[in-house]
């Protein structure tokens, strides 16, 4: 089996549990061996990088340092991230630590407080889809299909973070990549030519600019509906959350009646491999996929069972010792807080 280090990211423990469950179900059939990075932490998503670079990149790079240390025993230097934001952050940290030596030095100084260090370029950072297409291969995936998704019209939606900026030139095209299309076709699905496949879902604009977010969501959902898709398949937890959880609010905002299920591509892989729908997380989506699944002969979707809680460290993340009290720093803090 091919061996990789898995960085799951925070979403896999909560809103994207269907992604994690379905990923675990497809690993054995295709010979994908994922070893989770021990003691990983949040990548900071998108906001932290807009506050202060060194702490943000230190937060991200702690995962790379842990992965590099684990790779010595694991025998692999490839880190796989299913989440698009996590993938981009890990790849970005590795890239900029090389391109900006001063940043790399500052990050490693921060990591040293926890007894860690990371040499940029020592790991390969890859998205799950990239590994499935170019390492596992479409022939292997197709050979495991026992229940083809024949008759299911799918809109492939990657979102904006996976194919851009593409530091290692891994994708076929930055605006209209074909990798997800090819995988879905290997499963037997009818893949529509979805023109908005790399357009933004709005990210966290649902929290800070709902009107803008609802328009971005509406454009994606309406385009999929106009192309007569039965559902959308994505590989990004944030995209799935926005298009699924905020579809109802978007309908109310515009007075529309869209009902477009949005699921993870690994869930469709599991279905094609013959795994029961409930084991893949179907039923957790807010916009039900039942009608779409009925098109491929799956008439009933049992309620998904609760997954056991994932282990969390009771002591939390290692933190550097607090700085000694400084009257000058206290004065500056008071001025900022005024």
Would you kindly provide a written description of the structure presented here, covering whatever features stand out?
The protein has 338 residues and is of the alpha/beta class. The protein folds into two domains: 2-128, Glutathione S-transferase Yfyf (Class Pi), Chain A, domain 2, CATH 1.20.1050.140; 143-294, Rossmann fold (3-Layer(aba) Sandwich). It has 14 helices and eight strands. The chain has a four-stranded parallel sheet with strand order 2-1-3-4, sandwiched between helices. The protein has a four-stranded parallel sheet with strand order 6-5-7-8, with helices on both faces. Helix 1 (17-30) packs across helix 12 (265-272), helix 2 crosses helix 4 (101-112) and helix 9 (210-226) packs across helix 11 (247-254). The longest helix is centred in the N-terminal third of the chain and has 22 residues, at 53-74. It is globular, with a radius of gyration of 21 Å. It starts with a strand and ends with a helix. Mean pLDDT is 90; it is low at 304-312 and 317-323.
Find the count of extended strands (DSSP E, 2+ residues).
8
Rg, Å, rounded = 21 Å
Q: How many DSSP helices? A: 14
Global structural class: alpha/beta
Low-confidence stretches: 304-312, 317-323
The main sheet comes to: 4 strands, parallel
- Range of helix content: 40-55%
N to C succession of SSEs: EHEHEHHEHHEHEHHEHHEHHH
Distance between the termini: 59 Å
Please write the CATH class name of the largest domain: Alpha Beta
Architecture of the largest domain, according to CATH?
Answer: 3-Layer(aba) Sandwich
Mean pLDDT: 90
Physical arrangement of strands within the biggest beta sheet: 2-1-3-4
The coarse silhouette is globular
- Report strand %: 5-15%
Total discrete domains: 2
- CATH topology of the largest domain, by name, is Rossmann fold
